[in-house]
Fold each of these.
Amino acid sequence: MIRARNLNRGRRASAHKTLTVSLGKFSYPIHIGENLLPQAGSRLARLGFDTAPIVITNPTVFKLHGWKLCKSLQAVYGPISVIHIGDGERYKDQRSLNKIYDGLFHARADRKSWLVAFGGGVVGDIAGFAAATYMRGIRYVGVPTTLLAQVDSSVGGKVGINVPQGKNLIGSFHQPSAVLADTGVLKSLPARELAAGLFEVIKCGAIRSTAMIGYLEKHLSQILSCQSEALQHIVLESLRIKAGIVARDEKEKHLRMVLNFGHTVGHAIEAATHFKRFKHGEAVAWGMLAALGYSMELGLTPREEAVRLASLIDRVEKMPSLKGIELSELWDALIRDKKFRAGDIQLVLVPKLGVTRIRDCIRRQHFKAYLKHFLRRGKRIF
Ligand SMILES: NC(=O)c1ccc[n+]([C@@H]2O[C@H](COP(=O)([O-])OP(=O)(O)OC[C@H]3O[C@@H](n4cnc5c(N)ncnc54)[C@H](O)[C@@H]3O)[C@@H](O)[C@H]2O)c1
């Protein structure tokens, strides 16, 4: 059963922080802190947004936190239009996109209009794509409300929708003009959503920061019970890592690929189970375990490093099992993945926590045999 988080827990919080994603004239600020929603209007006005925005959201998020955001926007801009899409991955589709376009035309949005993407990764991806395409591109601001969206999807400009042929196959790069990450809203997240986002935080530590891994090991219970300072710390540090990587490789030519640690096998696991059994972050966690085990087998990652990360993953949540996934289905999903370069299997490996290596030309039969073993043994490979 999904537990709701105690909204009143851990009220004390440290000051708000601001990071910048440095992309020349497309640079943008990320504001991070608890209770930012009531300041959204004044902060955005200070950033130069001088007309009323159109908010894209879903009913779940809007019911929980929409009044705070709208009250603060209305105080500065007057009446605000809100466009709702359905809640869930299945609504990141062409129909919802058309609904957003219709809403924008109805609100007489023009090329100077701007959107606020208020929700998790689903809302962020589709609202960002609507912004990328409406009248050849308008500005948007991300106000992410899940941990996954705050530490990952709201920054970097990857926007898009799903089509029957696959996930995220229609999309674009369109950077937001600003991001406001109010860590206070994470307290209403169901426990499983919090855990799914935490796996992306672990990924950030695994690829770039042993300090982050150490922090997670020490403060996991505070994070899982939504203690304010712990939440702010992990959001800030994950965003620092992501913003640094995106600034150096906006369009994923090379460096940005390290953010895909765990995602190659993770996406295949999601696809092989028809996107039903696992949350995205949970599949990524399994993907990280698969990559670690393989790297261990190649003699690249010492066993104690792999075991350290696997133990941390294990402490977060009891993830859905891999039981029943057929190797053939996993393999088909893997070789269909758009991240494969001209049929080459490419994996991001972590030879040592905080350090990455991109391994090209993985030997197919060897990797397939390893996956068979991994599907059978799961976490017992460590
Ligand atoms: N663009 C990128 O770089 C990128 C990166 C990673 C993932 N993604 C995409 O992100 C999506 C997954 O995002 P997600 O995990 O945030 O899922 P989601 O957007 O579906 O949100 C998960 C659930 O939490 C609810 N919710 C959101 N905020 C809440 C809050 N504060 N309190 C209570 N409930 C809340 C939502 O209504 C939803 O039911 C996928 O579509 C994935 O492809 C994009």
Amino acid sequence: MIPLHHIGKPNYLVIQFNLYKNILMLENYCSDPDCHCDEVLLNFAQLDEKHKITNNLLNLRVDLKSGRIIEKTILEPAVDADSIIFEFNQHFSQFKSHLNENNQKVKNYFSAYHGQQLPQEIVDLVNGGNCVDYQKIFGNINQISFNYLNETYLIEDQYCMNPTCLCDEVVMVVYKPNAVLSEVLFRLDLSDDSYEILKYNNKDHIAIIHHIIENKKSILESRYHRVKAVGNQFLLVEKK
Ligand SMILES: [Zn+2]
Ligand SMILES: [Zn+2]
């Protein structure tokens, strides 16, 4: 969850509840453009007459479509949380479009590359015919993870960024959190799901690859297109 003010000037609302006046509602959104959790984490904080936060009252995790409260965390023990929740629910239709628009803003922000140019390191990788780690371009958030047989795995996904190449390939390093060795390293062709195993340390590596293809294919495709778009934006001219 990322606070809205991390991506620019926020348009936070100040709410007048019956029992609590001048309550600032800070909004935190899921930054993963491929995640459809549709949740917002709201933080309600008391402002003083100088518009400074004096007291943090409570956090609510809310379903953006229905307004349902998924989770509440009381930060000020004396707060009458139920009265705030009641009024919030009662007036959710007034907050709904505001919150959903800001959710979309955060998703759009994390779908795009914000640098003025690509770092030389990335240009060198592409010119050398190498794939580029998604996180090198879009930051070290939104890493793909999955569970297989009660184990958590992480994927480092690398894409061909060369705008003139239409290989449709992603190279994946699959590893367990904090592990020294990777479990499997393979190349997947997104156009026909064919793959080439480059290295493995896990006897279930084929099953793991199939699990990834079955469950993560659409995410890998959108990430491929996102990386290609950055390649198109910055590398097309240099290739001519
Ligand atoms: Zn999410
Ligand atoms: Zn390629």
Amino acid sequence: MISFYPGPSRIYDEIPKYVADAARLGIMSMNHRSEEFIALSKKTITLLKQKLNIPKDYTIFFTSSATECWEIIAQSWVTATSYHIYNGAFGEKWYTYTQRLRDGAQALPFNHEKKIKPEAFVFNSKQSVICITQNETSNGTQVSNAIIKKIKTNNPESLVAVDATSSMAGIVLDFKAADIWFASVQKCFGLPAGMALMVCSPNAIQKANLLNQNLHYNSVVFMNAMMEKWQTPYTPNVLNIYLLMRVLEKSKPIREVHKRIVNQYKKWITLLDKHKYLQHLIKNKAVHSYTVLPVETIFGEVNLIKIKAKQKGYLLGEGYGTLKANTFRIANFPAIKATEIKLLQNFLNAIR
Ligand SMILES: *Cc1c(COP(=O)(O)O)cnc(C)c1O
């Protein structure tokens, strides 16, 4: 079965071999305070910075999930207001999770066909955290690096936090343009679920230390003190850190990966533009995600397509939430091979 699900998604072919190596080398019972772990952690973080083009002075943390990152941000950085700029289910969930923990969470939803105007998001509250979902996995839209940068420039005193769960390691992200970025590894990283990464600017770390909100095992103040020794407050997913390290060793620089992903995205658009019964859910191409394609069926036979695809060995992503009835989603993640995309495209082209 070839998975086109946008998370958990197709893992790299080499993963089973790396898991076998991990077993042989004792990685699975490695102590997380040992010299060996420190070396592994340091190497993985160094590779992440190299391959994803993350500034050297940024700090990278290992966490459990993107969902946990939403809570870490609320607990460690939100003191007064958090502004949630979103157009879909994941951005809305981030808002809801923050609201449960903090009274000052404000929802600023926008239409999924609309490109946001940075001028509309200039805030008075200087102590705020501005939360942006860069790639909205539920509806296949994205917010560009340029817009994120503008919002930060317009609000220099605020922290800008970016959910890049379904785009980090798939496209070029301008890490300098914001303070906090996070993603879990079961999407563009092509790894099994159970870990996430949080990437923080020196400014974000400084703010966290200043606020000194240190009530939780994954408070940034505590995480940062541990990461100065390449460690985590808790026992991390050592196996997944090892797998990430092995995958990164072999991965191309993000600029090259980005090019391939955008090319593949264009091929999908060519197919959908020509198709008689299938179309992209979002009509405004200027807001399309490169890594997640939501496909709408014009005649409503979405279940039949999914069943037939499964019989052929292609797992399509369900439409998200209320979009389930008339859409399916296709992941355009780096671990999916060109030959596999071709197979699915032939299958979809044959639908009549
Ligand atoms: C998948 C996803 C999440 C949730 O990730 P978990 O690892 O399950 O916590 C959050 N945000 C976005 C944009 C996602 O695509």
